[in-house]
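Worked Example 4.2. Read the sequence first, then its C-alpha cells.
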Amino acid sequence: MRLPTLLTAAAFFALSALHAAPRPNVLFMMADDLNNSLGCYGHPLVKTPNLDKLAARGVRFQNAACQFPLCGPSRNSILTGLYPNSTGILTNSQLFRQTIPNHISLPQAFRRGGYFAARIGKLYHYGVPNSIGTNGHDDPASWELELNPAGCDRLEEHPNIFSLIPGNFGGTLSWYASPRPDEQHTDGLQAKDAEWVLERCARDKDRPFFLALGFFRPHTPYVSPEKWFKGYPEAEMPVVQGVKEDQADLPTPALGSYKKEQDKLTDDLRRQAVQAYYSAISFMDAQAGKVLDALDRLGLADNTIVVFTSDHGYHLGEHGLWQKQSIFEESARVPLLIAGPGAKKGVVANTPVGLIDLYPTLAELCGVKAPENLQGQSLVPILKDPDAKGRGWVLSQVVRGGGFKRQGASAAAGDNGKRIFGYALRTDRWRYTEWDEGRAGKELYDHETDPKELTNLADKPAHADAQAKLAEQLHSAVKTTFPPSGETPKIPEGNVMYSPMLIDL
C-alpha cells in the first residue's frame, strides 16, 4: 500500500520542481518591411546566415501572413492580438489607445505578469526615417524601458540618399550605399543597446524579461554600409518580366498600391533598388546575429523564447508593384521563426498562421494572463508538432478609396470616393480574394500550380466548387474579425488625449 504513496510523492515533487522553474524570457525581434527573401526560406541570392541558424534552432513557419500589409495597422494588430477591424487602426499615425484605450497590449500583459519589458527601436508605428531617434507613436504602458538610438543614416546621410522623389524617403523607393561601418548605423546601435540590456538581465535574473527589438531595415530608404552592397552585384539582380500579361486578368483594386513615381523606374533603377533592398536585409541579419550571439554568450539562450518576424511582406516588382499594401502573397506573407522552450528544433510548419497568433502563443508559453477577447489562435500545439493543422487559414485585408488614397493608392485603383475593403484568405493550397465583397472583383490562385499568383482563376467553371467553398470560408472568417458589437471602433474627433495606465485598479 506504500507504493502509490511514493509515486504520489514523486509526482508532487516533480510538479513542485516544474512550478519552481524560472519562467522563460522572450526576445521579440521584428524587421521592418521584410519579405521572405531569406536563406532559410530558400531564396537563391540573399545571404542571412544568422537568421538561418535561428531557423535551425526552432520552428520556421512557411506560410505566415500579416493581417494588414501596412506598418501601423499591422503592428497595432500584433501587439493587441486583435484584427484591424477590432482595433480600428486602418492607417498609419494612429494608436489603439485612441480607439480601445483599456485594452491590454502584449508587452503590457507581460509587465503586469511581473516581467521586465523593454523596447529598442520600432515596435509600434514610427514615421521612418524621420521619427528615428524618438518614441514615435509609442504606448507608454507597454514598456518599462524605451531606447531610441539614432545613427548616421538618420543624422548625417539624408543629403546623400537617392530617391525617385528627391528629398522624400519614407514612402518612396530610395537607397544609399553608406561609407560608414555597421556600428554607426541605427540598427547597429540598436544591436549594441540590446546587448547592454541582455547583460543587465543576465546579472539580475530575479525577473524574466520581454525584450522587443524593432529593426528599421530593410524599410526605405534602403541604407546600409557599402560592404553589404558588394555581395549583390547590380548586374545580377533580377527584374520581374511579363508584367502586362500578368495584370490583364486582375481587378482594378488589386493594383491600387501602385505609386505614380514608380513610372520613373528603368531596368537599371530596378536592379539598383533590388540590390539595395537585399543589402539592407543582410545588414539587418548581421545585427540580429550580434544579439543572438549575446544571448548565447550570457547563458540566456536555453531559457529564452526567440521570435523573429516582420510587420508585413514587400513587393519588388511582382505584378508591377513595389513596396506594400497589396494582398498578393509577396505583400501579405511574412517570415516567422520561433525558437526556444516549448518549440521543436529545426522543423518547418506549413499550415497557414497569422501574426495575430503571437500574443496568445507567447502568453501561453510564459504563463502570462491574457485578455479574453484575443482573436488569434495559440501556436503552441504547432510548435510541439509542426504537422498540427491549427486554424488552417490566415486572413489579410487592405483598404482602398475613401480618402485612404493618401497611403499610396493611385488613380488606377478606381478611387471614386467610396471606401472598400479587400480580404484575402490563404489556405494550404489557395489564395482567394474579394474586393468590396466581390462587387469590385475577385481573385483565385492555386499555389500547387501557380505559386507566383500569375493566373487568376476566379469565376472559371473548372474551379467553381473550390471557389464557392473558399468564399463561404472567407465570409465566415471576416465576421470573426469584428468586436462583439459588430462595429469597428472609430478614432475620436479632435485632439483627444488619454492618460496612460499600466493597470486599472
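Now turn to a second chain, presented in exactly the same format:
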Amino acid sequence: MTDNLIGGDKLAVYLQSLGAAETVTGSKHLLNTPEFTLLVDCGLFQGIKSLREKNWEPLPVQGSAINAVILTHAHLDHCGYIPQLVKNGFRGKIYMTGPTRDLAELILRDAAKLQEEDAKKANKHGYSKHTPARPLYTIADVETALRYFVPVDIDKNYSLTNNLSFQFSPAGHIPGACSVLVNCYGKKIVFSGDIGRHNSELLPNPVHASEADYVVMESTYGNRLHEEEDPDKALADVVNETLLQKGDILIPCFAVGRAQDVIHIIYKLKRNKSIPQGLPVFLDSPMAASASKTLLKYPQWITISKKECEQMFSGITINEDYHGTERIINQKGSKIILAASGMLTGGRVLEYLKHYISDSKNTILIIGYQAEGTRGKALLNKDYEIKIHGQYYLINATVKEIDGLSAHADQKGLICWLKDFKTIPAHVYLVHGEPDAQQALRVKIKDVLGIRATILKQDQKELLFYINDQQAQPAELVHAIQYHK
C-alpha cells in the first residue's frame, strides 16, 4: 500500500506503462491501486535492437507483485511477455476472451519455438554476440504460463475486489480482440487495446463502454489516414501485374488476422475471375492455419457464414514443415505465398525473402503496419539492401503496399471511436504509437474534442485520482472468477 500514499496519508490510483510508451510494441499498462495491482496486456518488444533488448531487462515491478493480467488480444506485442512474467514470479489469473485464449496459445508456442530454433542456428553458425545464444523462454515455459489463462465472456462484469471490476467489449482488429472497461473506486477507466477498422473484411465494427472518466488509447495511425482504395481491386492489380512478369507474389502477413483477410479476398477474386482461378496459393504458416480454424470455432466473432469460411480455405495449400518451404520455393510457375511474420522479423517468410528479394520479376506485398527497425519498414523506406541471418541481399523485387488491409483504425477512425462515448472522458492517455503519430493525435483530440491528452512515457507513473479511506475499504478480494487449470 505504500506505493499509493501521497504525502504519507492520501491514497491514490496510478497508471504506469511498462511498454508501448512512445513506441508500438511491448504493450504493458499497469494500474496500481491500494489493494490490487492490475496489468493490462503483457507484450513483447519488437523492432529495433534497443527495443528488443528491453525484453531481457527486469520490469520495475516484481512479477509476484502483480495480482492479475487482462489481455485485450492475442498479438505477440500484447501477449508475448506472459511466459517471462510467470518465470519472474507472477502467479495470478490472466483474463481474456475465448478466441484470445486459443490464439494466444498458438502465438506463444510459435514464439517459443522460433526463439529456440533461432538460438540453435545462432550457436551453430556463430552469428550471435552472446555465447551461448539462448531463447527468452521455451515451450516448457509457455506450458507453465497457460495454467493461469482464464477465458471470460464479453459484455459481462467480473469482480476482482470489492472496488475493482472489468468488462470486455469487442474492438475489431482480430477475432477475440476487446477493449476493456475497468471500474475502479467509482471511476471508469477504458483501455482501448488495438482498435479495429469499420467495415473490416471479416470482423464486426469496434464498440466500447458508453462512459469513461479516463481512456488509455492506442495511437498506431494517429497521424495517418488510410487511402480510399478498394483492397480487392488493389490486390487483383498487384497479382495480375506480377503474373505478366512471370513472377511470384510474397505476402508477409500476421498469422492472426491479416492472413485470414487476404485468404478471403483471394477466394472472392478467384470466384469472380478477377485473377486466374488456377493460380497456386500457399499458406506457409502452421500457426496461421491453426488460427484460421479458430474462425470456425467462434463463428460469432466474424461477419461471414461458416460455410463461406470453410470454402475460402478450400483453394489454399497449407505447408506444415521446412522441407515443404523448399519445395514451394523451387516450384516453377507464378504463385502467391502468404507467410509469417507480418513485419519480416522472423519465421519462414525470411526463407522466401532470401530467394525472391533480388529478382525484379517478383513482388513483395506489404499489407500491415511496419514498426521502425523492422525489415518491412526497410522495404517501405526503399532501402537498397536488407540483412537476413547475417547476410545482405539486394532489393530488386517490386515492393508494393495495400493500405486498405490495415487492422488498425486511422486518425479519423480513432477520433470517431472517442466521439462515441456518451460522456466526454476527462483525460486520454496515448500509448502504442510512434512519437510523431502520438503527437499528431494528441493535438487532434484537443482541437476537435477539447479533451486533454497525455503521451505516456516509459515507466513513468501517472497519478489518475485520489481515493478516500471509505472508498478504499474493505480491501478483501472477491474471487468471483474460478481458477482454470
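Notes for the reader: The longest helix spans residues 98-125. The chain has a mean pLDDT of 90.
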